[in-house]
Amino acid sequence: MIAALVRFHRAFRGDWLSYLRIVLGLWLIIASFVLHDATPQAHWNDVIVGVIVVALATWSISLMRQSHLPSA
User: Fold this and answer.
1) Domain boundaries, the chain
2) Measured between alpha carbons, how far is 23 from 18 in angstroms, rounded to an integer?
3) Rounded distance, CA 51 to CA 54, Å?
4) Diameter of the chain by CA atoms?
5) C-beta of residue 17 within 8 angstroms of C-beta of residue 6
6) Residue 72 pLDDT level (bands cut at 50, 70, 90)
7) Rounded to 5 degrees, what angle do the CA atoms 29, 30, 31 make?
8) Would you say 18 and 61 are in contact if contact means Cβ atoms under 8 Å apart?
9) Residues 26-53: pLDDT tens digits?
10) Is the pTM here over 0.85, yes or no?
């Protein structure tokens, strides 16, 4: 959430924040399998939130790359 807020306020324009969010989202997915959540609901919550984080970070990267393309 902190990385998203920093990105929202445009303090940093580098791609590294989006890549960091991808790594954090993947960790959330992997950790739910490795660390064995207490309940099945907690496990699926971690997996679903991780997938959403990865998808939104990927979308952010694609939008940023499109904005850097020179206009025709």
Assistant:
1) 2-67
2) 9
3) 5
4) 54
5) yes
6) very low
7) 95
8) yes
9) 999 999 999 987 899 999 999 999 999 9
10) no
Alpha helices in 1-71 (DSSP H): 2-8, 16-34, 40-68
The answer to whether 17 and 7 have CB atoms below 8 angstroms apart is yes
Q: Could you tell me the sign of the dihedral formed by the alpha carbons of 49, 54, 59, 60, in that order? A: positive
Q: Cβ(61)–Cβ(15) under 8 Å?
A: yes
Q: Is 2 exposed, middle or buried (0-12, 13-18, 19+ CB in 10 A)?
A: exposed
Place 13 in a pLDDT band, splitting at 50, 70 and 90.
Answer: low
How confident is the model at residue 60, as a pLDDT? 83
C-alpha–C-alpha distance, residues 35 and 56, integer Å: 24
